[in-house]
Amino acid sequence: MRAALVGVDFGKGDFAASLDELSQLALSAGAETITSIACKRSSPDAALFIGSGKADEVAHAVIDLSLDLVIFNHALSPAQQRNLERHLKIRVVDRTSLILDIFAQRAKSHEGKVQVELAQLQHLATRLVRGWTHLERQKGGIGLRGPGETQLETDRRLLGERVKMLKAKMEKLHKQRETQRRSRGRSNTFTVSLVGYTNAGKSTLFNTLTKAGTYAANQLFATLDTTSRRLYLEGAGNIVVSDTVGFIRDLPHQLVASFRATLEETIHADLLLHVVDGGSAVRNDQIEQVNHVLKEIGADHIPQLLVWNKIDQADLLPAIERDEYGKISRVFLSAKNGQGIDLLRDAIVELMQKEAVSFESNTEAVFDE
């Protein structure tokens, strides 16, 4: 599918990196980027987001390059999307829809599929406001006029019923997860969750640590379903390690809400391994984005260890870095070739032991009172 990427520079953040990320998202969704069109604005145009002059430029590119799709690096309102489709006479997809599409392709487990469909339907619900008017004009209303109920009302009702059913399924899955977590809690098993920006190397690290053999690929959102494995650490015993879905800037709210059940593995962890792509030029921005989502799901209070991955691409050596108080703050490693993995194991054991000491001292303080 031949696509044009459209990005508007509002003067915030690294615009080039954001557009490059959109290109990777498009590739992950199965689209081939033929051209990128960028412009600068202080704020979005109410009707066409990019303004009529730039919309004409995109329209010419659509014809000249025989494009099938135009992808915007922003969330478009239903009216803007509809106006653009009328103007360009081609399908327009915004960043939110693109990410939802990738998630729909990648979801493997029953739970993952339910979560993605729920997010898609909730997004679609916002697009149904007068969504059929341009089709009525094109086709003369044939087949769109129902007896006593318009197509729009029918769609809204059916969509509402489906959303209700999916939410009930999600509640059931949530209860199952809660039961599993409680049984782990009763056995006092220390739990570690891998979090990080998409494509930072979480699944590769998970596989290297646990020999799990889960799917890992150099693409965005290779992992959607949380996988947990037991791991034995010398000096600490068995722990449970979970690999979770990657985060991305402007992650659609529908996805954060729908994937709350999956992300709850993160909320209930004893330690977060925040995996960072050490070779990325925008790694600090990515760290910020991950911390933003962690705050959104209520996991910002959990102890965090930064894992500086891909040191082989950044000409760095395996190492443990400590702060001014001697506490471990970062571990430098390469999940791909195994450099520094032993250092990470040692770091987890040390943090576990410190956690146990602080827990014991807190318990003693309670008894002293």
UniProtKB/TrEMBL annotation:
<comment type="similarity">
    <text>Belongs to the TRAFAC class OBG-HflX-like GTPase superfamily. HflX GTPase family.</text>
</comment>
<dbReference type="Pfam" id="PF01926">
    <property type="entry name" value="MMR_HSR1"/>
</dbReference>
<feature type="domain" description="Hflx-type G">
    <location>
        <begin position="190"/>
        <end position="356"/>
    </location>
</feature>
<keyword id="KW-0342">GTP-binding</keyword>
<dbReference type="InterPro" id="IPR027417">
    <property type="entry name" value="P-loop_NTPase"/>
</dbReference>
<dbReference type="InterPro" id="IPR042108">
    <property type="entry name" value="GTPase_HflX_N_sf"/>
</dbReference>
<keyword id="KW-0547">Nucleotide-binding</keyword>
<dbReference type="InterPro" id="IPR006073">
    <property type="entry name" value="GTP-bd"/>
</dbReference>
<dbReference type="InterPro" id="IPR030394">
    <property type="entry name" value="G_HFLX_dom"/>
</dbReference>
<keyword id="KW-0963">Cytoplasm</keyword>
<comment type="subunit">
    <text>Monomer. Associates with the 50S ribosomal subunit.</text>
</comment>
<protein>
    <recommendedName>
        <fullName>GTPase HflX</fullName>
    </recommendedName>
</protein>
<keyword id="KW-0175">Coiled coil</keyword>
<dbReference type="InterPro" id="IPR016496">
    <property type="entry name" value="GTPase_HflX"/>
</dbReference>
<dbReference type="InterPro" id="IPR032305">
    <property type="entry name" value="GTP-bd_M"/>
</dbReference>
<dbReference type="Pfam" id="PF13167">
    <property type="entry name" value="GTP-bdg_N"/>
</dbReference>
<keyword id="KW-0479">Metal-binding</keyword>
<feature type="coiled-coil region">
    <location>
        <begin position="156"/>
        <end position="183"/>
    </location>
</feature>
<dbReference type="InterPro" id="IPR025121">
    <property type="entry name" value="GTPase_HflX_N"/>
</dbReference>
<dbReference type="Pfam" id="PF16360">
    <property type="entry name" value="GTP-bdg_M"/>
</dbReference>
<comment type="function">
    <text>GTPase that associates with the 50S ribosomal subunit and may have a role during protein synthesis or ribosome biogenesis.</text>
</comment>
<keyword id="KW-0460">Magnesium</keyword>
